[in-house]
Amino acid sequence: MALERDPAHPGDIGDNEPEEEPDPDRIYEQAIERRIEEVSED
């Protein structure tokens, strides 16, 4: 149970996603926030 980020090992390449790539949940939240902002501007 390693909660801290260790340097990537060759076996962990599948987990080693680029930092710039946001996770799907965050993309979904941002889409909702944009929709709310668009509605409140009207």
Account of the protein in words:
- The chain is mainly α and 42 residues long.
- It is 43% helix and 0% strand.
- The chain has one helix spanning 24-41.
- The longest helix is centred in the C-terminal third of the chain and has 18 residues, at 24-41.
- The chain is rod-shaped.
Mean pLDDT: 73
> What share of residues are in beta strands?
under 5%
Shape: rod-shaped
Structural class: mainly alpha
Total strand segments: 0
Q: Helix coverage percent of residues?
A: 40-55%
One letter per element, helices H and strands E, the order comes to H
Which runs of at least 5 residues are low in confidence (pLDDT < 50)?
none
Largest sheet: none
End-to-end distance, in Å?
A: 49 Å
- Tell me the radius of gyration: 17 Å
User: With helices defined by DSSP (H or I, 4 residues minimum), what is the helix count?
Assistant: 1
Region (Disordered): 1-26
Biased composition (Acidic residues): 14-23
